[in-house]
Amino acid sequence: MERREEEQKDEEEKAEKIALWLKKIFGDQPIPKYEVNQRTTDILYHLSECNKARDRDVSLVIEDLKQKAREYESEAKYLQDLLMESVNLSFTSLSSIGSSYLNALVDSALVLETKDTSLASFIPAVNSLAADLFRAKARNEEMEFELSKLGKNLTATLILEKCLREDLKKAELHLSMEKAKVDSRISNIDFLKAKSDDLRLRIKAAEEQLSARGMDASLSHQSLMALSEKLAELKQQTAPLKKKLESYLDLMPNPSLAQVKIEEAKRELNSVDAELTKKVDMMELLPDQSKRRFT
Asked: CA angle at residue 170 from 164 to 173, to 5 degrees?
């Protein structure tokens, strides 16, 4: 019971804080109506707390800036008084050129983020800026080199891609041609297979007809092929015997046949000798006849 009363009390406090926060936010404008329940109450309470925390942070920042502004004003007044006392010089007495130089000096200090406009502050800031510039230039050169390298690689890649595309086109063309050849060969094979089946059927029918007419089985194609193979085998077997027989044929003939051959050779030699003698005699007679004509 007590716990429930505490929860109810917390809800009432949240509702009061939410109402005050909404009134502060909207001011004189009417607050929009909303459904009051546990969820909306929690959301609005969380938003009010966040808004209050942000307002506190903003107030602290504003107070800090005001404090710094007062310090800067005090320091500026001190410097102006110092200039007036030492060299009798004030900001209002500067010429337009002097004012522009002073403004440029202040702007440079702001850009370089120095604590003051003294030379001891400017030199390290300028050196740091020069170092940053040098690093930026070096980085820029590296990036340009990498960019040039990437450009060359890109060019080579594009050339390679072009070559690969051309090779792919050639391969596709060659593949289509080979496919056409394969299709043609397949159709030829199918045709030859059908033709072979047809011829086989015709041969079988012819063999059946010949067998019906009483043809000897030894005259069939298969029998003739078997006989041909057997004949070739016999020829191979008789080849060594023929070579052996040829060696016997090269031997000397018998004496009686040799005597007959000798007699035939003698008769042929005598005939040739007689013919030669006859021609010699005729040649001797020709000069004698020519001498008689001239005398």
From this structure: 140
- The answer to whether 213 and 206 are in contact (CB under 8 A) is no
Q: How much is the pLDDT for 165?
A: 92
What is the spatial distance between Cα 63 and Cα 271, in angstroms, rounded to a whole number? 163
User: Do 276 and 246 fall within a single domain?
Assistant: no
Which of 88, 85, 129, 94 has its CA nearest to residue 108? 129
Output b/e per residue, 18-47; b: 16+ Cβ within 10 A.
beebeeeeeeeeeeeeeeeeeeebeebbee
**Residue 295 pLDDT grade (very low, low, confident, very high; cuts 50, 70, 90):** very low
Contact 106, 95 (CB under 8 A): no
DSSP H helices in the chain: 2-26, 38-87, 96-112, 119-212, 221-249, 255-294
**Boundaries of domain holding 264:** 253-286
